[in-house]
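Researcher: Going back to the complex we discussed earlier. I've cleaned up the inputs and rechecked each line, so this should be the final set. Can you rerun the prediction on the complete assembly and write out the structure?
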Amino acid sequence: MRTTKNDRILLAHGGGGQLTDELIRHHILPKFKNDTLAELGDSAKLNVDSKSLCFTTDSYVVKPLFFNGGDIGKLAVCGTVNDLAVAGSKPVALALSLIIEEGLEFELLDKILSSVSQAAKQNNVDIVTGDIKTVEAGAADKIFINTAGIGVKLAGADLGFEKIAAGDKIIINGTIGDHGLTIISQREGIKFQSQLQSDCAGVAGLTCELLENTSGANPVRNKTPEASASRLTGISNGVKFMRDPTRGGLAATLNEISKGSGLSIEIREADVPVSPVVQAAADMLGFDVLTIANEGKFIAIVSPESADDCLNICKNHPLGKEASIIGEVIETRDTPTVELITKIGGKRIVQMPYGRELPRIC
Amino acid sequence: MDFMLDRIHKAQTLCNAACEKMGRQINIMEVCGTHTVSIFRNGIRSTLPRKLKLLTGPGCPVCVTDQGYIDTVLQLADRDDCLIATYGDMVRVPGRGGSLETKRTKANVKVVLSSEDALQLAKDNPNKIVVFVAVGFETTAPATAVVVKEAAAGSINNFCILSGHKLVVPAMRALLSGKNHNIDAFLCPGHVSVIIGYGAFAEIVEDFGRPCVVAGFEPLQIIEGLGEICQQLSAGKAELKSVYPAVVTEQGNTSAQKIIAECFEPVDGYWRGLGKIEKSTLKLKDKYSRFDGLKRFNITETPGEDTSGCRCGEVLCGLIEPPECGLFGKSCTPQTPVGPCMVSSEGACAAWFKYGQKRKDE
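Model: Rerun complete. Updated structure for the full complex:
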């Protein structure tokens, strides 16, 4: 039920008056039912039973707003959830801020908010606070979203560059390049028919499973007594570092890890999962798939002893079916570098991508 | 996979044997920019004997485009009655008065993905004269010819082209006619050969005694092409071969050749780095001259001067490798390109910058 005749956002919807109130009560609250938000206080009051929290924020300006496999709403939840997840925490609450261009259709807004709500449910986080601003036509591109999130640090998680050692294995939970190429392919001007689909997903479920596995809450099926034993002794310190390869792709993330740890990295092209349709699109458009953004992937650096267990945990999770050990951390001979052993046995350096990527992919 | 590695190993053996037998450095020029990128991306150089050197040739259309042509485009971009339609790669090539990127603020420069898009732009903007920046080798020339014919048939008179189309074989002849060259053989471009047929390179073999081998862009095809060349050199032979038989025929695409011949005639033209080359550039025939931008705006193109310090010309002739240029990686980077070889993703300098970096201890 809407009291205005408008089917579009007006500047006044951000004015703090009656229209703002209607917008919140009719479009926001019904989608995010939780007690904390329902209070509509100036701050959300959270009861968190932990001394160690993770806190992050990210803004989303993706164009187009809707793409195969997701939309700006889903992205805004998953992106922030993933930042909390790879820091070794379990996401608990998100703040959602909308900057809306005057004239945005309510139909689109509702679709985006439903998507936010669905993604929040899937990732077990509540939207506990938020804000709405409207700007005049032309001052924004339909809608921009900011989310901030709080996560509770998992007891077993002890992650950091300093934990990484030569010999550690590098795991990725699936194919690379799907998100970036989906966006590029749907951009105005480069429309081509394809089965590309963004990998946009929140990976906290999987990362928490990886980190919690030692405590006995082991979801891995068909486990043998030997495997359980090794898990109890070895894996607790098995995961040493995690990061999500978003903008700049795998190339940027591996370079950050190499630089941060002071160690070199060697990966094998043949072991890096890439779907054929992504490879074909990247070849056609002249992109190096290693530099293309992902939105449902994470890299885990794990000890060699725990690598097989970690890989199995990933493979048994819906978001890690195509997980792979893509390479190793190695001693640095001169400066920390990332090297790729190509399918034909050649070697090349994988550099930090050099600026000028396609803008507004997330 | 093993089958592929076996074939690669076989080709590598041929390369090794040739280097050993000849006892000197072997220089093979890859003419095509797509080959250059594939060679770098797949780490092919690292799999070859040290004495086998790959030279990057003048096979990137953006890179060989003379500065005079760029200046003409920029001159037209300044006119209020013109709309420039260009392939994306040309936008950042610096001319004397900036680049199309800096002229773009007036919304008078549109990036198109095909010649058809450029013609459509003319139909959509009847009050502007759309000038299509028609660059490329025999691969893109047929597409330009098609729209010129369409414009003629549909009396779309607010459309014209600036033909910068170039022919590959005259450039190869010019390189071999130069005194300084050190080219032992050519790895010939697969895409161009699809159009002109591998038979077109027979004159290079006959007149200059240099092996010409057409190869596709997969690493295996490139290495097999190099193996074939080495085998010939080792045996003191110079032959014409295609290791891309599934796609390239001796005659090529005769319909495409026909439409080029119908619309264009080869005239003497300027190439960056190579200077004036006889019958190397395609000009619209008289019957289509009303679509010739130079005639329409009564412009006489003057050969440009290369930017001081920029050694793109020598890079394009295979005389130096990009890092030998004083500007490379310093004032000239993909972010701030000085010369065209750093602008195009297929340019030798850009490929070298992105993929060619070596470990410091190598």
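Model: Worth noting: Chain B has a mean pLDDT of 92.
Researcher: Good, that matches what I expected from the previous run.
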